[in-house]
Each structure stands twice: as structure tokens, then as C-alpha cells.
Amino acid sequence: MTTALLCFLLAGPVLLVAASPVHDPNNGTTPLVIWHGMGDSCCNPLSMGAIKKMIEEEISGIYVLSLMIGKNVIEDTENGFFKDVNEQVSMVCSQLAQDPKLKGGYNAMGFSQGGQFLRAVAQRCPSPQMKTLISVGGQHQGVYGLPRCPGESSHICDMIRKALNSGAYTDMVQKHLVQAQYWHDPLNDDLYKKHSLFLADINQERVVNETYKKNLQQLEKFVMVKFLQDSVVDPVDSEVSVLETLILSIGYLIISLMTHLISHLYL
Ligand SMILES: *[C@@H]1O[C@H](CO)[C@@H](O)[C@H](O)[C@H]1NC(C)=O
Ligand SMILES: *[C@@H]1O[C@H](CO)[C@@H](O)[C@H](O)[C@H]1NC(C)=O
């Protein structure tokens, strides 16, 4: 597939970000924060790196921050599998709070698990303010299956799949495996509610935290994009789930074209 075509299709969310009528100190544009998916990193020239570059070319003067979780690209990739999600979210919150360029607010775009992680940022960390959240293939109701792994991480995935199947809700696995923290076993809902360290908390399964609700309602727009032919997570419907009332409906055609294409590239 050609880069030009990809650029065209990806222009959907970009235009949406660009169209935000807010004017901030950053050269008249609203900054964008992006969070990569599982097996990916902040700066892979074929994924987040390309998206960052494309957006910068598209919107002159924009500040794009592609989140790196850890000190380098290798740590960043590993942390996507093994670092406690709650810790990752609080690291990101303090990074965003300390960034002077984000003072006036920002838009956010999360890819795959980065989608639900950024929703946690919106719910837990109201300042600086997230304006629009675009979740591309985020699993907001969790996963109950990891049929295929992206890229070169397939042996890590085999290991992870075994751990998840044998005891996703054990303390040991919960603490050390990112995907366990959004593992949602529909046949054992009580176990999920009780033991899920991350997802059950942000989805308000144990108690309703009014602060989460209030913070999430501060979003001007919340866009959830679902990959129609996702082969990496199960069930696909998790990608548009809770909070449907907040979904902004953007052109179905653009979304389905776009998701068709990027589901082969990004997770
Ligand atoms: C915004 O930034 C771009 C590139 O950095 C620059 O060419 C442009 O003049 C700036 N515009 C404003 C209004 O500051
Ligand atoms: C609700 O969320 C806020 C923000 O993360 C947190 O400080 C507070 O402790 C939470 N309250 C409960 C009851 O979990």
C-alpha cells in the first residue's frame, strides 16, 4: 500500500484534531499526545514515528508528543507488556503536568491499549485538560483472547497467552502483566471485578468514583474507532463499548476505510 494512500486515510482523525476550534499558546494549534499500542514504541519510524511526522507536516507548528514509557525505545516496548498500567498512567500524568507546552490543554490519540490507557489519564488527571480523546482500536471493555500478536513479538505473546489462560486474575500475573490488567473474562465476572487492577477500576466496576465521571465529562469529544477485522484481540466489540453516549459519530466511511488499512499496521 502506498504511503500517500495511508496519509489520505489517516487524515480523518488528523483533520478532526486540526478542526478543534480552540486556540492555545502553541502557535495557534492544540498539542497532540499519542500513546502507542502493545508491541510498539513511541518512535518506531513505521508506526508512531510516521504518524507524528505526518501530523506535523499536516498541521504547521503543532506540538506532537509521542509517549515513551521508560528511558528508551526498548524499555518502552517492554513496558507495554510488563509494567503495571496504573504506574504507567501516573508516570504519564506527571509527565504531562510538567510539560509547559501542554498547559493550555491537549488532544489525545491512543492506539489499541494506548486508547484505554489514555482514557484512564482523562479520568484520573484533569490537569492539564484533555480536550478530545481519539481511541483507535482501544479495548475499553478489555480482552478475553489474544489470538495473534503484532510484529516481532510473537514469542513474548505465546508466553503471555499461557499466563493469561492459566491465571489472569492471580496477584502474580495481575501485577506483572499489562494485558492481564485489562483481561475481562465474561464467564467469571466476579473474579474480574474483584481482581482486575486496572480495567475494573477505570470502568467503575467496584465503586463509582464520581471524580472519574466528572473528569471524563470534561472531554469535549470522545471518538472510539473500532477495527473491523481485528485479529489480535478478542472480542472486537470491546473497542466501542462503554460510554456510548459520548461517542461522536464521525463519517462511517472514513472510519471503515481507515481501520481496514491501519489494522494491518498498528496495534
Ligand atoms: C507556527 O510554526 C510554524 C513552523 O514552526 C511557522 O512557520 C509559523 O510561522 C508559526 N505560526 C505562528 C502563527 O506562530
Ligand atoms: C477517585 O479517583 C481519584 C482520582 O484518581 C482518586 O484520587 C480517588 O482516590 C478515587 N476515589 C475512590 C473512592 O476510589
Automatic annotation (TrEMBL):
The reaction(s) this protein catalyses: S-hexadecanoyl-N-acetylcysteine methyl ester + H2O = N-acetylcysteine methyl ester + hexadecanoate + H(+); S-hexadecanoyl-L-cysteinyl-[protein] + H2O = L-cysteinyl-[protein] + hexadecanoate + H(+); hexadecanoyl-CoA + H2O = hexadecanoate + CoA + H(+); S-hexadecanoyl-N-acetylcysteamine + H2O = N-acetylcysteamine + hexadecanoate + H(+)
On whether Hydrolase is a keyword of this UniProt record, the answer is yes
Record GO terms (molecular function)? palmitoyl-(protein) hydrolase activity
Q: What is this protein called?
A: Palmitoyl-protein thioesterase 1
GO cellular component term, pick one: lysosome
On the tree of life, the source organism's domain of life is Eukaryota
Q: What is its EC number?
A: 3.1.2.2, 3.1.2.22
Provide the family line. Answer: Belongs to the palmitoyl-protein thioesterase family.
InterPro entries annotated for this entry? Answer: AB_hydrolase_fold, Palm_thioest
Biological process GO annotation list? receptor-mediated endocytosis
**Which of UniProt's keywords are assigned here?**
Disulfide bond, Glycoprotein, Hydrolase, Signal
- Signal sequence extent: 1-19
